[in-house]
Amino acid sequence: MRTPRRAALARAATCSAGALVLLLSACTAGGGTTGAQDAPSADQKVTLTVYSAFADRELGILNKVLDGFHAAHPNITINSQGSQDDDKITQSIRGGNPPDVAISFSTDNIGQFCSSGAWQDLKPYIDRDKTDLTQIPKAVQDYTQFNGKRCAMPMLADVYGLYFNKDLFAAKGISAPPKTMSELLEDTKKLTEFNPDGSIKVAGFIPQFGFYANHPQIWAPQFGAKWLDGNGKSDLASDPAWTEMFTFQKQLVDFYGWEKLQKFTAGLGQEYSPDHAFNKGQVAMMFDGEYRTAFLKSDVPNLNYDTAPSPVADDKADTYGGGYTTGTIIGIPKGVKNAGAAWELIKYLSMDTNALVQLANGLGNVPSTKAALHSADLKMPAQFNTFLKIFDNPNLANNPASPNGGAYLKTAEDLGSSWQSGQVKDLHASFAQADKTIDDAKALGGN
Predict the structure, then answer these.
(1) Which segment of the chain is annotated as a signal peptide (predicted)?
(2) Which domain holds residue 189?
């Protein structure tokens, strides 16, 4: 999977949501176009500008799919501009010169895009064309709308599961990947090797928040942890699943010792480099997305590994097989001149089976409709099939959209790091304080 989107996910826990709020606040007056504009007639020449963060090879893959749209609509020419991140998209909207179609790698900004009117409401088009949203899993429908306003459609998805080193498993007599957290803890202990001086040589599993794909939104579905209560308030202190999750992670940390774990991870390779710890057999198991299969094929083609759904809390065994998802979103910015033509392109990129399969095969991501998911033309390595099944599972989950982006994710992750390191002693009180911080920030960001 492309590094920019993976970096976007990591940044969601650290970036300032306030910057996006300030950028978009100037866009709210007047809202977007109301109603559904007609598509241009066959003899009406239109040029659509498309912004995306794709670059190099991956931009070429997108452009090839866009060529397919142009072949079906010869009157619509596509001006595809890559290396355009969310900041550039929002700046163009604020400056009154937006692209006709915007493609974003960060679902965390959907709350601002929808609530500010920066991205137009797509419901009039969906209703007019009777677009079948049941083709899209509920979790994906959820991350493309905010407070009932659908201002985006999905275009491919990332899905997270468990990667494990089969050779290391065999050496320790482990015949199958863990399905519960108790099994994960047991296998972690079996797989971990220490040097004579007590330092870590091989880690069975690394639980540190912020390390590789260890983020609270990826862990939460495995414990059934809910971000919000019935009134839309932060629910960390009241939902016992959060306490269970943090307590389990602390068990893993304490098995190693915080200082040993810190020293070990500080010496490991970067997440998107060939020196990644899983590539080198320094980590036996990890949570990661489907995109990692492409990295492994390129960097260590002979690595003997497999994938499985992430283990779940012991009392949530009936939810095994699901997992966390996020993905690329696509919408029509406020103020565009060719909204009707833009919708035709969005509908093609989000609902056309051939287009989605071509994108998925080229980019190494999960196609975001059920028809594309089950297409015979989808050609992926065997280890990729796990993520297709997770995406098709009813227990697929995503974190809720917020008017201030991923600020609440950063609050939860910061607390998790402080808890794991031993700085936090009263977990419940810290959860309650985090709830207040999240709710106060959300109120400032607007509902």
Answers:
(1) 1-31
(2) 161-324
* 330 burial type by CB count under 10 A (0-12 exposed, 13-18 middle, 19+ buried): buried
Strand partners of residue 164: 285, 306
The answer on 149 and 91 residing in a single domain is yes
Give percent above pLDDT 90 in the chain.
89
Number of folded domains that form the chain: 2
d(CA 81, CA 127): 30
Residue 445 near residue 21, CB atoms below 8 Å:
yes
In terms of Cα–Cα distance, which of 398, 395, 365 is closest to 141? Answer: 398
Closest among 405, 402, 165 to 288, alpha carbons compared: 165
Q: Contact, 325 vs 398, CB < 8 A?
A: yes
Domain identity same for 8 and 149: yes
All residues at 6 or more sequence positions from 273 whose CB lies less than 8 Å from its CB, including other chains = none
Nearest to residue 53, comparing CAs of 115, 5, 116? 5
Residue 439, both tokens: 């709710």
**Helix and strand element counts for the chain (H, E):** 19, 12
Query: Residues 386-413: pLDDT tens digits?
Result: 999 999 999 999 999 998 889 999 999 9
Structure-token pair, residue 93: 């909207």
Quick one: 309 and 333 in the same domain?
no
Q: Which of 333, 330, 344 is nearest to 37 (CA)?
A: 344
Can you tell me which residue has the tokens 């949501």?
Answer: 17
Examine the pLDDT at 6 and tell me if it is beyond 70. no
Where does 73-226 have alpha helices with state H? 86-94, 110-116, 123-129, 138-142, 166-171, 181-191, 216-223
Q: Which ranges in 84-180 belong to alpha helices (H)?
A: 86-94, 110-116, 123-129, 138-142, 166-171
CA distance 220 to 397: 9
346 lies in the same domain as 224: no
Q: What digits encode the pLDDT tens for the residues 11-47?
A: 343 443 444 444 444 444 334 445 889 999 999 999 9
Do 338 and 97 touch, CB atoms closer than 8 A? Answer: no
